[in-house]
Amino acid sequence: MPAVSAPALVPPALRVAPLRALPGLLFCLALAGISLALARQPWPQAHGLGALTLAIGLGIVLGNTVYRPAAPLLEDGVALSRQRLLRLGVVLYGLRLTFQDIGQVGLAGVLIDALVLASTFGLAAWLGPRWFGLERDAALLVGAGSAICGAAAVMAVGPVLRARAEQVAVAVATVVVFGTLAMFAYPLLYRVAVAHLGALAMPLHFGVFTGSTVHEVAQVVVAGRAIGGEAESAAVITKLVRVMMLAPVLLLLSAWRARGAAGGRRAIDVPWFAFGFLLLTALNSVITLPPAWRPPLLWLDDLLLATAMAALGLGTRVAALRSAGLRPLLLAAALMAWLLLGGAAINLGVLALLG
Description:
By secondary structure, the protein is mainly α. The chain has one domain. It is about 80% helix and about 0% strand. It contains 16 helices and no strands. The chain has helices at about 20-40, 40-45, 50-65, 65-90, 100-130, 135-150, 150-160, 165-195, 205-215, 215-225, 230-245, 245-260, 270-285, 295-315, 320-325, 325-355. The chain is globular and about 60 Å long.
């Protein structure tokens, strides 16, 4: 049995003088604030561009231009944002979910989510290295974005895999490209479902299909809304249940990496923030937050995740993205095809089995 490593009393990312980290932290926070403001504008909302996507894009642009001369001054705060604030943001993400969400989609919805997630992630782990020549971690990051919850999953899985910044950025880019395509394609696919796919012709069932296969929560909302109110509600609830599966995936990945270490043994680096995520989800399921508390806490979570995304973008070099080539996009395209075809087959099969 691999040992479980205890968390350090003082995390490495915090072993810097606060004043040294302050400039970079404020810079990342400013980029996050700009991204949050842009995400509320009509055009980004209509095209499913959330604050996380905008933050990493802004970070990449500035990281390859004006940030580079200032990097020595800002890097401590950028590293703090990219590591510790990311974990805190993932923990607070639990406030968006409740275990009652599971009851709303029923056993069929949970089983569909689990099968879609496991098959997509497993396919990425197999296809990425064997067919497309990707490094294992790069393939798993693309798989996480496709299988679980888009950019947030890529960001959460990155620290567990100890992935490089450019690998994370490339995986997020695949989410943007194919999630955006899905967002516009699914309302058109609904017409095909009405004509040819029986059970999926019902808005409720097509909503479950949408929530179980589209990448980002924002993209699910846009696609579901274009189909109709019932489909949107079912899609969002199904998607949130899929997001809830992030925590066990992080734990399993950590254990798997420990088993695959040289010599077959290594301490398991437990992603403790996954437990925090589950704890807040559990508390949110049994305790009703005062109405005045919820919006500020969710805004804080958006700010933390966008700050981490901006920091990630600042550390990503365009040359590194170019060196990745088309292979990550080809893997993401293959996963998208599986989400459409395999996801439809899983949805229809589970509906036929459980009625």
